[in-house]
Amino acid sequence: MAAVIGDEMVEGIAPEPTRRANAGWRRLPIWRWVILLVVGAYFIIPLVAALRFTGFSAFPAVFDQEGFSAAFELSVRLALITTVATLVLMPPTTIYVHLRMPRLRRLMEGVTILPIVTPPVVLIVGVLQVAPGFLKGTPYLLALEYVVLAMPFAYRAFDAGLRALDLQTLVEASHSLGEGWGTTPRVLLLDEPLSALDAKVRLQLREQIRSLQQRLGTTTLFVTHDQEEALSMADRVGVMRDGTLEQIASPSELYAHPATAFVAEFVGIMNRIPSELLSLLGGVPAAADGPADPSGAVDALVRPKGLRIAASPNGNGIVTNRTFLGQLTRISVRLTGDVVVQVDQQSTDTGTITPGSSVEVSLLDAPVLVAERR
């Protein structure tokens, strides 16, 4: 019931903020529209004025001027040099300060603000005086000027981005998961990683973890108390009891052929039927496994799918409860001797089987696991 209510809440309430946002945009006050128009005119009017002053017909003539192609090529080259030099110098410097020398952040902020508050003419003249001699008289001196002017802005942009990403936390998380970036562990231990999540998110992450593990090929030990998680995600499942490994096998082997009575009753649903009642259910089936020399009475362990049920006025049991599970319906039946068994039946075949009705329960012709009676 809680899961259904949760789905309804997600489907019914989630779109509401969007509708409210759209409604709020439609109800935007007139004075805000006026402000937007004024701001737009502030940027558009000077452009229109410049175009009218020079004349629209003057622009094509610019491309025909002598030396235009050489000047354009030089501008592109300087832009590329400036961009590459800034990207080569700034990210490593910024990352190193963040990771290794975080106390220098304040100093670096002060240093990088100086070129911003210093007039560009002063910077250009100063760079001309200290520039190497082989750069003077070459176009690459302009590239040096551009890099000096762009450095403080680039550093502050990278610094703000790294602060938002919290790089130190990302590095610590990578060390805890894989002992460093680019390192794949030989064995990965996941101890109840999905236990605190709701059912829908847990199912999605379960599939993603399984897909990622298969793609990386990393041996993973997944500890969980959720049997559905274990059976759906693992290649092999181990069942432990009091610190002892009872059985380790593939999920299908573990479910269909449990090695012990504990594993049989622990994994999935298992009916424990006294051997005296087997004749009441249509005969004594063959034993798939069990104690070699039982010292006393024994029980047959049968899965709900190992039993048949049919409505019968003079049946051997009374329906006490039924639980709808989608395609299947699980029916609880009280047999003679106050023994309650559970039977899985196709939901389409259970219309006439209701609590309180008399039914006939019988065993399928298949071997069962035999265990000593507790």
How would you describe the overall organization of this protein?
This protein is elongated. Helices cover 49% and strands 20% of the residues. Among the domains are: 107 residues; 104 residues, Nucleic acid-binding proteins (OB fold (Dihydrolipoamide Acetyltransferase, E2P)), CATH 2.40.50.140. Helix 5 runs parallel beside helix 8, helix 6 packs across helix 8 and helix 7 packs across helix 8. The strands form 4 sheets. The chain has a 5-stranded antiparallel sheet with strand order 8-12-9-10-11, with no helix packed on it. The chain is of the alpha+beta class and 374 residues long. The two termini are 36 Å apart.
